[in-house]
C-alpha cells in the first residue's frame, strides 16, 4: 500500500458547458446556471428549472468521449505512444445508464404500433428493438475502456449521488495496491424525464435557485454533468515525464442506513466517511484547508452535513472555509462527486475558493464559514470533497498539493 496516487489530467462538463475555462466567469463569480428546462415537458411539474449544458449532443456516450479525451490530453497520454500503459488502465464510472435511451426502448416494447418503420429500424437491431444492454450503466465503462484500449476490468457504480466519488476511490485502491499503474475514473449524468419527475414528485426541488446553508432554501435543482480523471501511481507519472496536478491522499465511504431518502440528522454517517478518509490519508483534521460540501440546499441535508463536519473537526471547524458549488451547478447526481473533485482540484491549483451563491442569511444551527461573500483567496494545501446519497451513502475524497518524499 506504499504507492502514491496522483491526478495527471481531467475533463469536465458542467451546466456552464464543457471544460474549466468558464469557471473563472461563472463559479468564481458566484453565477448560477439555472434556467428553464427545454428538454423535458415541465407543464405539470412543480419545478421548471435545472442545469442543462449547452454542449450538443447531450448523451452519455458523447459526454464520456469528451471528458475522456480531455483528461488524456491534459495528462499528456497518447493512445499510440502510451498504448501499453493504457492497456493496463482500470476504468471506473459512476452512472445510472442513459435514461433517455432506456425510456425510448421501453416505449418501443409497450407501444410498437405507434413507432414508425424508421424508428423501429434504428441502431440496426433485428425487429427494430433497441439493445437495452447497450444503455445500461456498465456499457459506458466498456465504451471508455474501448476508447483507451484498456484490457483491464471496467466497473460501473450506481450508488446514486456518491457513484462517481466511489469510482474515484475504487480506482485509488487499485493503484495503491499495485493492481494497476493508471486508471480512468469519474461519472456521467444527463438530465432525463424519469429522474426529474421523481425528484419533482417528492417536492425535493427548489422553486427558483439553490441556496445551500441559507435561510429560505427550498431544495435542490438537478442537471447535466460529467467528469473523468486520470489517476496514476507517482512512479508511472514520473517515469513518463508527466507533471502531476495533485495527490489523492485518501478516501472514505460509509452507509448510515437511516432512511431511504433522508440523511441521518445527526450527521454520524458522513462523519465516519470523513474520518476514514483522514485516517487513510494519514493527516490530522487541522491540516484540511477547505471543504467542498455536498450542500444540496435541502433543509435536512445542510443541517446534517454541518453537524457531521463539527463532529469531525471540532473547534477547528471555525477555521475551515466550506462552500457548496451546487449553488451554481446544481446537483449532477451520479456525476456530481467527480465534477466536484475537479472543482476541488481547480481550487487547489488556483488557491481560490469558490463561493456558496444565492445566500440570504444565517439560520440557527448553520453557523460555519460558508464563503458567502464571493470567491476567497487562500493558500490551499489540502482540500476535502464530500458526497452523500439516498440510502444513507456517503463518500469523501481528499486531495493534496504534492509534497517531497
TrEMBL record:
The UniProt record lists the keyword Cell membrane: no
Coiled coil segments of this chain: none
Taxonomy, superkingdom: Bacteria
One Pfam family cited in the UniProt record for this chain: Ketoacyl-synt_C
Key words, A-Z: Transferase
SUPFAM superfamilies: Thiolase-like
Limits of the Ketosynthase family 3 (KS3) domain: 2-401
Family, as annotated: Belongs to the thiolase-like superfamily. Beta-ketoacyl-ACP synthases family.
Name of the protein this chain belongs to: Beta-ketoacyl-[acyl-carrier-protein] synthase family protein
Amino acid at each position: 500500500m506504499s504507492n502514491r496516487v496522483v491526478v495527471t489530467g481531467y475533463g469536465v462538463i458542467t451546466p456552464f458547458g464543457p471544460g474549466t475555462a468558464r469557471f473563472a466567469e461563472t463559479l468564481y463569480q458566484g453565477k448560477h446556471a439555472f434556467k428553464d428546462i427545454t428538454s423535458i415537458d415541465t407543464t405539470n411539474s412543480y419545478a421548471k428549472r435545472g442545469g442543462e449544458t449547452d454542449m450538443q449532443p447531450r448523451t452519455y456516450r458523447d459526454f464520456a468521449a469528451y471528458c475522456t479525451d480531455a483528461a488524456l490530453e491534459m495528462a499528456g497520454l497518447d493512445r499510440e505512444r502510451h498504448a501499453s500503459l493504457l492497456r493496463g488502465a482500470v476504468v471506473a464510472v459512476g452512472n445510472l445508464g442513459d435514461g433517455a435511451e432506456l425510456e425510448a426502448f421501453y416505449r418501443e416494447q409497450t407501444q410498437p404500433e405507434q413507432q414508425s418503420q424508421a424508428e423501429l429500424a434504428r441502431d440496426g437491431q433485428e425487429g427494430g428493438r433497441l439493445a437495452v444492454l447497450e444503455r445500461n450503466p456498465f456499457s459506458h465503462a466498456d465504451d471508455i475502456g474501448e476508447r483507451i484500449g484498456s484490457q483491464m476490468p471496467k466497473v460501473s457504480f450506481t450508488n446514486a449521488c456518491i457513484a462517481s466519488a466511489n469510482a474515484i476511490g475504487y480506482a485509488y485502491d487499485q493503484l495503491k495496491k499495485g493492481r494497476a499503474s493508471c486508471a480512468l475514473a469519474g461519472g456521467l449524468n444527463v438530465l432525463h424525464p424519469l429522474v426529474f419527475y421523481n425528484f419533482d414528485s417528492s417536492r425535493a426541488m427548489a422553486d427558483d435557485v439553490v441556496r445551500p446553508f441559507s435561510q429560505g432554501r427550498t431544495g435542490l435543482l438537478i442537471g447535466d454533468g460529467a467528469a473523468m480523471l486520470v489517476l496514476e501511481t507517482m512512479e508511472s507519472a514520473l517515469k513518463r515525464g508527466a507533471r502531476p496536478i495533485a495527490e489523492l491522499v485518501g478516501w472514505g465511504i460509509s452507509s448510515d442506513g437511516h432512511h431511504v431518502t433522508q440523511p441521518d440528522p445527526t450527521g454520524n454517517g458522513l462523519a465516519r466517511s470523513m474520518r476514514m478518509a483522514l485516517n487513510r490519508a494519514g493527516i490530522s483534521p487541522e491540516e484540511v484547508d477547505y471543504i467542498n460540501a455536498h450542500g444540496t440546499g435541502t433543509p435536512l441535508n445542510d443541517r446534517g452535513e454541518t453537524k457531521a463536519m463539527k463532529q469531525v473537526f471540532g473547534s477547528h471547524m471555525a477555521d475551515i472555509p466550506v462552500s457548496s458549488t451546487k449553488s451554481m451547478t446544481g446537483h449532477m447526481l451520479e456525476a456530481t462527486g467527480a465534477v466536484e473533485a475537479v472543482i476541488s482540484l481547480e481550487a487547489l491549483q488556483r488557491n481560490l475558493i469558490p463561493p456558496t451563491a444565492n445566500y440570504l442569511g444565517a439560520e440557527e444551527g448553520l453557523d460555519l464559514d460558508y464563503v458567502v461573500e464571493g470567491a476567497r483567496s487562500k493558500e490551499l494545501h489540502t482540500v476535502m470533497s464530500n458526497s452523500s446519497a439516498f440510502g444513507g451513502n456517503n463518500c469523501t475524497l481528499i486531495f493534496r498539493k504534492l509534497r517531497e518524499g
